[in-house]
Design a protein that fits this description.
457 residues; alpha/beta; 18 helices
Amino acid sequence: MKIFSTARVFVCCFVIGAGGIAKGDDRTTTPSVEAKKISAAKASPEDDNAAGAKAEKTEAEEEPKAMSIGSLAPALDIEHWVGDSPSPMSNFEPGKVYVVEFWATWCGPCLYSMPHLAEMQSKYEDQGVRVVSVSTEDLETVTEFLKRTVSPRILGIEVPKEEPGDEGEEIEEEGTDGEESAEEEKEEPKSITFGELTSAYSLTTDPDKSVHEDYMKAANQNGIPTAFIVGKDGHVEWIGHPMSIDEPLEAVVSGDWDRAAAKEKFDRDQQIKLAFQKIIMAHRAGLHDTTLELLRDNAGLFEGTRYETALKSIWFPTALATQQSDIAMEIIQERVEASPEDAVSMNRWAWEVYEAVESGWKDSDEILSTTIGAMESALASEENESNDEMWPAYDTLAHLKALAGDKESAIEWQLRAIEAAPDDEKENLRAYLSELTGVEPEVTEDLEDADEETTQD
């Protein structure tokens, strides 16, 4: 049975996504045996169903419609306008365009956006554009922050590296007496404070978070900096990162902005983002049935988006946890086909297979035999055959062989793992060998010695 066509986009080779939501495993060392053997907690079907029922809302409980492109922009009920000439305002004047941006003193990307906002304000000031930045911090925090000197990097200035040499050593240029060097030293850029940098636009703070509620929360925006363009008729025209605002702002000011198209794109992006968040939350909570349902229902929604890669890491453990043999088999086959000799990557997902089968998965013979075959083939490759770094894969293969009922082969692979492993891992590996042989751990050392003698002969 094939996986439904819309889901096939998620079952190629194993890659964990970026964006800080589902991060890739870029470790160059393999986890210890004990760390590798920690099983993920699994929620019971009863817990899963209860959580799903709790999440359902009646019509009366449904949340109000979220702010979107085309929504009427709420008035700015701001507590503190900071700076020398703050010019407080609340209502948007018809015919003018406003940029309402949310920031914080602790937010690095917000600080790097400040020069761009200042430049943008200067560029469009004569065209009726006003930039208002809103923080939710207290007034003292913001006013103290404005006294700080802006880093040259924030201003886009490269700081030259000091040349090696003795401290205080002066180097004289060759030339006639009294003549200046042919190359004049570049003047160091004049330092400015954040107060001076942001003086071009309106910097504010709103500790009661009323404006944050009206904009950020209402539009389901969780990260800063985030900017809202309010158009000439007082409606929201665009929502996004201030470093991406140039093109839409130019179009809004010139009257060429397509609000309907912008709304369609924004609403779809929000739908994708919220669906992704639901999947991540269900997956992290161990609600495997709910995760599988969400993955299936939204497979087409994510196709061609940046979320595809991140979701690849969720399909496989979900298929294993819910015993979806067809999905798990197709993922395994595509992974093996993509990287047939990558024993390190294969070892990671093979251990997931071991945990799933060991926990009582019925009708898993094909999955188990396919995984074992792939591992044996990868370890027999020229690159891996004599590589002692493969000892964790030997250990995994021993566990898989034992599950398949081939205890003799399992013992052989475990002995090989012990021989190749570093000293601080051997004790744990011997413990499993003791399970396989049914003898005390001390006696297993005799088995190792016997195996080494056989190998030498």
